[in-house]
Each structure stands twice: as C-alpha cells, then as structure tokens.
Amino acid sequence: MGDNGDFAINEPEPKSLLEFPLDFPTCGVCGSTRTVAATVGEEERQKGKMGKDTMVFMHQFNSIILDPTRVALSVPVLSSILDICAGCGTVRCVHAELSMGIPQLQKGRGR
Ligand SMILES: [Zn+2]
Fold first, then answer.
1. Residue 60 lies in a domain
2. Dihedral of CA 37/42/48/54: which sign?
3. Percent share of the chain, pLDDT over 90
4. How many structural domains are present in the chain?
C-alpha cells in the first residue's frame, strides 16, 4: 500500500461509467430511426451495389484521450460515427466505441 502518486499502475481501474459500444438508434429531437447516409447506403445495398456488412455514415471522428504532459504506452481512442437525421435534419451521433491505441511519437520520418 502507500501513496504511489502518478505511478499507481497496479491498482485496478475504476469501473467505467459507460458501456461501449454505445448505439443511439433514435433521434433525441424527433424520434426518427432513419438517418440520411445510412438510408442511401441501404438503398445501394438493395440494388446490390454494396456489401451486406458495410456501414454507411456521414462522418467519423476519432478522438485520442491524451494528457500531453504525461507519458502513456496506450491511450483511449474514441470513435464517434455521425449521421444526419432523416426526420428533422439534426446531426447526431449514431454509434460510439472506445479502443486502446498507441500514441504516435513525433519521430523523424524517412531518415
Ligand atoms: Zn430527428
């Protein structure tokens, strides 16, 4: 025991407040389950132009959860998939997932 300060690597991590992946199937504004890009993708799929498991969406954000003042071997990477509600036009998150990634060191490349 004792105070390990910033180096408490052997302590169990606190239980997560969120259970990933998160799915948001309905619009919080109008309640529609349709989104624009996913609907266009569904129509392309019905025409046989797109694979069954290909996910279609408007935009994806990847956010690295990183404290630049600390050294970390792996950090949480949050991926959020956004689409536009087909019912009311609201840009909304339809899916979010969390993975662990290795921070890229700023090393000289190609030397
Ligand atoms: Zn809506």
1. yes
2. positive
3. 64
4. 1
User: Is 43 a member of any domain?
Assistant: yes
CA of 35 to the centre of ligand 1 (A): 8
Is 80 exceeded by the pLDDT of residue 85? yes
| 77 domain-assigned | yes
SS3 50: coil
> Whole-number mean pLDDT of the chain?
87
Count of beta carbons in the 10 Å neighbourhood of residue 17: 5
| 78 vs 51: CA distance, rounded Å | 25
Question: Residue 46: inside a domain, yes or no?
Answer: yes
Residues with CB under 5 A from ligand 1 (ion): 27, 29-30, 32, 85, 87-88, 90
Reference 18, options 65, 85, 83, 70; nearest CA is: 65
